[in-house]
């Protein structure tokens, strides 16, 4: 089976899942006893104005009819209107998503390779000092909430040592770079503004580390346990009996075999990080996607909540497909076995 066929099958299998998520979250949010129109128009708005808005947004129609209107708009790429921000949901995603997405990608970019490396080294040096230290760091990462770690990092590196900025995306004395992607470091780099690039990068150090630390601990533990399981397997014992050097066993055989569970954890981490940055964005003063959705939930902004759930579900699905594709590339027997089963 070719790689594109392998990915296409995964995409087709994910369509019913995404549709089911949309149906569930739409009906759950719309049966809640709330009236977002009053929050949008104001408490003192006359009844005629409220009724006109409800008619315009089809909020007086039965919920199945509202759902049909939503599906029709969704098929056209329109995610609806945000009553809390008074903009379209598409515009809100364009404004708020880049900073959150960049934050998540950078968090995974450092936590994944460092976690895999330390996990592998820890497994090959089991019960030694390095292994004990790695496990201790992993336990701390799993037991420490990201928001608590964020506050501690602020106190140490921003308040006491004055090494890194406390909050914000850019130094107040600087002007934001022209908007290209919406992510300050990338926009400043594309426009050749190295001053903005250095400042925006420094502002991201603490939130990126705080957000990625839990994922780093998960990857470390999974990589270590997977490697230990492979190193104690019969085929590795057979390789040792044949005189194959330990370095070759670890790099050529055990590493590839241990990547499956580890990559699965990385894929799941992407969706959870994308949906769980609200505390990080609030603590570090970053007006991102998760914080916007938090405000929308408080204001019973249905369309934003449905779009948010759909995007997070889509992120999980795409990350899972990428993980499957990466694992199939590392271990081609997966594709061949699936083809034989089919």
The count of β-strands is: 2
Along the chain, the helix and strand elements come as: HHHHEEHHHHHHHHHHH
Residue share in β-strands: under 5%
| Class from helix and strand fractions | mainly alpha
- CA-to-CA gap between the ends? 10 Å
The CATH homology group name of the largest domain? MetI-like
Shape descriptor: globular
Mean pLDDT: 84
* Low-pLDDT residue spans: none
CATH topology of the largest domain: MetI-like fold
CATH class (first level) name of the largest domain: Mainly Alpha
Radius of gyration: 24 Å
Write the layout of secondary structure elements.
Elements: H1 3-30, H2 36-41, H3 47-56, H4 63-75, E1 81-82, E2 87-88, H5 89-124, H6 129-143, H7 146-160, H8 184-190, H9 194-231, H10 234-241, H11 246-275, H12 278-283, H13 289-298, H14 302-330, H15 333-341
Antiparallel strand pairs: 1-2
Helix pairs in contact: 1-14, 5-6, 5-9, 5-11, 6-9, 7-9, 8-9, 9-11, 11-14
Mind explaining what this structure looks like?
With 342 residues, the chain is mainly α. It has two domains: 1-84 and 299-342, no CATH class; 88-298, MetI-like (MetI-like fold, Orthogonal Bundle). Helices cover 76% and strands 1% of the residues. It contains 15 helices and two strands. It has helices at residues 3-30, 36-41, 47-56, 63-75, 89-124, 129-143, 146-160, 184-190, 194-231, 234-241, 246-275, 278-283, 289-298, 302-330, 333-341, and strands spanning 81-82, 87-88. A two-stranded antiparallel sheet has the order 1-2. A hairpin with a 4-residue loop joins β1 (81-82) and β2. α1 (3-30) packs antiparallel against α14 (302-330), α5 (89-124) packs across α9 and α5 (89-124) runs antiparallel to α11. The protein is globular and about 85 Å long. It starts with a helix and ends with a helix. The model has no long low-confidence stretch (mean pLDDT 84).
């Amino acid at each position: 089976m070719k790689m594109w066929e392998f990915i296409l099958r995964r995409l087709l299998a994910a369509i019913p899942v995404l549709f089911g998520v949309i149906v569930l979250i739409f009906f759950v949010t719309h049966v809640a006893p709330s009236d977002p129109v009053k929050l949008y128009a104001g408490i003192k708005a006359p009844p005629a104005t409220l009724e006109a808005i409800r008619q315009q947004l089809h909020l007086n129609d039965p919920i199945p009819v509202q759902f049909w209107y939503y599906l029709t708009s969704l098929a056209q790429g329109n995610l609806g209107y945000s009553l809390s921000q008074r903009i379209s949901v598409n515009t809100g995603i364009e404004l708020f998503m880049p900073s959150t997405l960049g934050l998540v990608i950078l968090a995974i970019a450092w936590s994944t390779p460092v976690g895999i490396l330390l996990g592998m080294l820890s497994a090959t040096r089991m019960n030694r000092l390095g292994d004990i230290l790695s496990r201790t760091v992993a336990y701390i990462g799993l037991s420490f909430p990201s928001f608590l770690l964020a506050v501690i990092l602020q106190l140490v590196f921003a308040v006491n040592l004055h090494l890194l900025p406390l909050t914000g995306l850019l130094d107040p004395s600087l002007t934001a770079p022209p908007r290209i992607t919406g992510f300050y470091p990338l926009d400043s780099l594309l426009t050749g503004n190295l001053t903005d690039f250095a400042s925006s990068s420094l502002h991201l150090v603490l939130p990126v580390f705080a957000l990625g630390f839990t994922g780093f601990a998960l990857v470390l533990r999974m990589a270590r346990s997977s490697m230990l399981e492979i190193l104690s397997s019969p085929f590795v014992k057979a390789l040792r009996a044949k005189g194959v050097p330990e370095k070759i066993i670890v790099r050529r055989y055990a590493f590839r075999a241990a990547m499956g569970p580890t990559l699965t954890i990385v894929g799941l981490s992407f969706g959870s990080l994308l949906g769980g940055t609200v505390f990080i964005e609030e603590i570090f003063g970053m007006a991102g996607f998760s914080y916007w959705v938090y405000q929308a939930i408080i204001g019973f902004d249905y369309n934003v909540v449905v779009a948010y759930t759909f995007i997070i579900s889509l992120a999980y699905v795409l990350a899972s497909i990428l993980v499957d594709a990466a694992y199939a590339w590392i271990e081609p027997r997966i594709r061949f076995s699936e083809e034989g089963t089919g």
